[in-house]
Amino acid sequence: MRHKATEPVGFRSVDVVMTALSNLFSWLVTALFGVLFLLLVYESWAIITHHTPITDYVRPAVHDHPAWAFIVAVVVGILLGHFLWGPARGRTSPGGGQT
Q1: CA-to-CA separations, 48 to 41, 54, 56, 59, in angstroms, rounded
Q2: What is the pTM of this model?
Q3: How confident is the model at residue 13 (pLDDT cuts 50, 70, 90)?
């Protein structure tokens, strides 16, 4: 089988790997949001039914280990800033162009 002149050899395998990695990333993000949703549902249920909410476990941990809480807050802030306010270029940019 001969390859087309417009498609260099090896690009197809790279496309398959990139598609697989993109799909894996999408599933992981979806799972993360699913877990966050379930945690929020549990927190709401615990507050409504007067059970111990997750907040009552997090506050003492933050008071016992403030350095770790600061590190986690910085990492979460960096990740949110990167994904929400990153440069507007590439496939997902409003212009839609590749730069």
Answers
A1: 11, 13, 14, 19
A2: 0.61
A3: confident
